[in-house]
Amino acid sequence: MAIEAIKTKKELSEAVYGFRASRIILTAFELGLFSKLGENSLNAAQLAAASATEPRACERLLNALCVLGLLKKAGGRFRNTKISRDHLVAGKPQFMAGLTHSASQWQTWHTLSAAVRRGTSVIKRQANRKDEKRRRGFIAAMHERASAQAPRIVRLLDLAAVSRCLDIGAGSGAYAMALARAKKSLRVVAFDLPEVLPLTREYVRRERLLPRIDFAPGDFNRGGFGSGYDLIMLSAIVHMNNAQQNRRLIARAAAALNRGGQLVVQDFIMGPDRTRPGLGALFALNMLVATAHGDSYTAVEIGGWMRAAGLKKIKKKDAPFDAALLIGWKE
User: Fold this and answer.
1) 146 and 276, same structural domain?
2) Degrees to nearest 5, angle at CA 283 with 278 and 285
3) What is the gyration radius of the CA atoms in the chain, in angstroms?
4) Is the preceding omega at residue 277 within 30 degrees of 0, hence cis?
5) Burial (CB count <10 Å: 0-12, 13-18, 19+), residue 269
6) Which of 66, 121, 154, 243 has CB 3.0 to 4.6 Å from 178, enough for a Cys bridge?
């Protein structure tokens, strides 16, 4: 997803009113309209009954989806177009399950003005972490991106002397699986919260990699990670924490490395003025509205935490997308 600078009044207007198309798509997705249509052709009354919506309002939404090219209307009946059929119908191979998380993000992003005033998220969070639907949506969204990026990231790593890896905050296990596939003799441990690991296991089972990957429950901001690792992966993790939390996290990760081991941080790694990469600058606002302390960090900041943990030979590697790697070695 490229971020283009706004240069004309027309482009400015399109950016300002872009929320309308987003909201139309997300509402239709949340109501399950695309999946209810599937391969069928239905009228508005049928879809309203199937989605428990008011018939007139449902038809107006369906008409708007036709304008966006996601539905076609003929004789008062609606059907999916190829793009909606391929990507918005549950069960299809390219189904964008992560849009559940996108719908959740809508609820956080509308608080941006208040978050900027306060300097932190204003979203009230439940004390427990039992929202299974939201958790599944989040992991699905992360997997959609990570499963495409992980193999390309892993190809940038030196695995010659690596026999045991730890993937901290494994999520769907996309990086753990990419590491396992990259080197057949590699043993990988996927570390995440106890309520997340059953989902991790589902994704790993689906790819038939259970014999190659172990699972370790825990909170990456509490306790240690054991020892004996040649490579530890922190992919899309440091942006969730504040600086002090990251300093401690990286110190504990470094302590778990063997001598000669490497710690790999993959994230949006910002330039000194924090405007590049563009997606990282926007993502910093996502962290502002959604987390208590998260941010997008610079190479100087992340490198400083690595050096404080005793890591050496720190180097940055650019990835073929906006995120990058910072790698430090334990001597």
Assistant:
1) yes
2) 115
3) 22
4) yes
5) buried
6) 154
Q: Where are the alpha helices (DSSP H) in 52-165?
A: 55-67, 82-87, 99-109, 112-118, 132-154
The 10s digit of each residue's pLDDT in 201-222 is 999 999 999 999 999 999 999 9
Number of domains in the chain: 2
Answer yes or no: is pLDDT of 126 > 60: no
18-52 pLDDT, tens digit per residue, is 999 999 999 999 999 999 999 999 999 999 999 99
pLDDT tens-digit readout, 158-177: 999 999 999 999 999 999 99
* Burial of 5 from C-beta contacts in 10 A (0-12 / 13-18 / 19+): exposed
Q: Are residues 82 and 162 in the same domain?
A: no
H or E element that contains 178: helix 174-182
User: Are 223 and 269 contained in the same domain?
Assistant: yes
